[in-house]
Amino acid sequence: MSGGQNRLVAAVSAALVRAGVGANSSILPGLSGGADSVALLHVLLELQPKLGFRLAAAHLNHRIRAVEADRDEAFVRELCERLEVALIVERAEGLDIGSANLEERARDARHAFLECAADECGANFIGLAHHADDQAETVLMRMLRGAGVTGLAAMQERGPGRIIRPMLAIPREGILDYVRERRLEFVEDSSNAWRSILRNRIRHELMPMLDREYAPGVARRLAELGGEMRALDDLVATLAERELDALMLGPGALDAARLAQVPEALVNPVLRGFIARTAGSLRRIERSHIDALRRRALEGGPGAAIDLPGGWRAEREYSALKLFRRSSRPKNEYSISLALDGDTRIDAARLMITGRRKPVDSIAMPASLSEAVFDADALEKGVLVARSFRHGDRVAPLGIEGHRKLKEVYIDRKISRGKRSGWPIVMLGDEIAWVPGVIRARVGLVTRATELVIRLEAREILDN
Fold first, then answer.
1. Pairing of strands 163-164, 125-127
2. Topology adopted by domain 335-460
3. What pLDDT, in 10s, does the model give residues 331-372?
4. How far apart (Å, rounded) are the C-alpha atoms in residues 41 and 252?
5. Which fold has domain 251-328?
6. For residue range 275-321, what is the model confidence (pLDDT) as tens digits?
7. Domain ranges for the chain
8. CB atoms within 10 A of CB 445
9. 415, 444 in Cβ contact below 8 A?
10. 1-12 burial, b if ≥16 CB within 10 A, otherwise e?
11. CA distances from 185 to 6, 40, 181 (A)
C-alpha cells in the first residue's frame, strides 16, 4: 500500500476508534457515488476485518438531475453488488431545480433518509464523507454570513447523533490520491459546478483566489480554525448550559432580568441554548436573529417581540422572555353570559366567576378587585357578559373622570400581553364594568336607591 493509501486508511481507522466503533458496531455510510463517498466505502471495507464492525450503505436519489441522478443510482447499485455490501436506496419526492432553498431541502431530505435507513438496518453509526476542504468551505461560508464562535466551529468528527465524519481531517487531494492509486471508479455530480449555489462559488472561485493571491494554504488554516473553535465552543456550551438551567422559569420562559448578570461572552450562547431547548433545533437561526433577540431581552420593554424562523416568536413580558409558536398562541376570543346565581367557568383565563343575588343590606362592600358588586336594576336585560379583550377597549375608572385605554391600564398594572388576551372583561351593556383583579368602572354602581345587588367573585381554577 502506497503512502497516500496508508495515510487515509490510518486517519479513518484512528477516527473510528475515537468514535467508539468496535466489534458490536454497525456503520451505514451515505454513498452518493462521488469520489469522496466511494473512497470512504473502500476504506471501511479495508478496516472491517480489523475492527469487526458490520457494514451497509445507503443512497438517496434526489431526482433533481433527471437522467444523471438515475445513472448515479445504477452505478451505486452495481458497485455495492460487486463489493457484496448491502444497500438501501430511496427516491426523494418534491425536489426540483426550481425549488426554494433547494440545497437546504436536499440536505434535510438526505439526513432524514439516512436516519430512517440506519433504523431499518440497525446501524448505530452513519458515516459521512466530509473532508478538510469541506470544513474549510463551511467555516468561510459561515464567516461571510456573520457567524459567531458556534458557527465557526462548523462540523465535528462525531455527532450530532449517530453521525461520524472519519475523513474530516484529510484534505480532498489526499482522498483523490487514494482513489487514483486504487483506480477506483466514481461518478461526477454536475450540480457541484452550479454557480447558483454559494458553496460552489466559494469552492471554485473564492478559495482558489484566496489561496493564489492572499493566503497560500488557506484551506488548511480555515480547517484548523474550525477545529479550535469547536474546542472553544464545547467549553462555552458547557458554561452556557449551566447559566441556562439557572435562568429557565419554565418551558419556553427565560428570566430576562437575570440574563443581564450573565458574563458577556455567554449571553448569546445562552440565547441559542434557549431556542434549541424550546424549539428543538437552531435550524435557520443566524447571528442576526440572536443579536435581535438579545436586544429584546436586555433592552426591550414589555411587549418587545421578534419573529424567528420556523414559525416561532419571542416576546418580552416584563421580567420574562417567552418563546412560543405563533400558530399555537390561542386567540381566546369569547363572549359568555355570566350566571347571576351560580358559577361561570372562563377557561381562557382559568378563572371561575361566581354570582350571587342578595339584598343590598346583606352584603359587605368588596375587599379587593377580585370582587365586584352591581345594582341589579342597572343590568341591561338582566345580563352581565364576560368577553375577551378587543383592540381599542376603553374604561371609565372608578374614582377618576374620563376614560382610559384598557391597554394602558394593563401596562400600569404590569399585566403581560399573554395574560391580557384571555382575561375576562365584564360588560354591562356596551360599557366595561369590571376587569377582575384589575379595575372597577363607574358602571352599575350601588346607590342609596339600590335594593337588590349582584355580587361577583373571581377565583383561580386550580384543577387540571
1. parallel
2. Phenylalanyl-tRNA Synthetase; Chain B, domain 3 (3.50.40)
3. 567 888 898 999 999 888 888 999 999 999 888 888 899 999
4. 43
5. 3.30.465
6. 999 998 887 888 888 988 998 888 866 556 788 888 888 888 767 88
7. 3-222, 251-328, 335-460
8. 14
9. no
10. eeebbeebbebb
11. 19, 13, 11
In 167-271, DSSP assigns E strands to: 248-250, 253-255
> What tens digit of pLDDT does each residue of 193-231 get?
777 778 889 888 998 999 899 989 888 888 888 888 888
Cell numbers for 242, please give them. 449551566
The single residue listed with the C-alpha cell 483506480 is 183
**In whole angstroms, what is the distance from residue 88 CA to residue 399 CA?**
77
**Sheet strand arrangement including 305-308:** 248-250, 253-255, 320-325, 312-317, 305-308
**The pTM of the whole model exceeds 0.70:** no
Alpha carbon 71 to chain centroid distance? 37
296-299, long-range: CB < 8 A, 24+ apart: 296/321, 297/254, 297/256, 297/259, 297/271, 297/321, 298/256, 298/259, 298/260, 298/267
**Top CATH class, 3-222:** alpha beta
User: What number of other Cβ atoms are within 10 A of residue 386's Cβ?
Assistant: 25
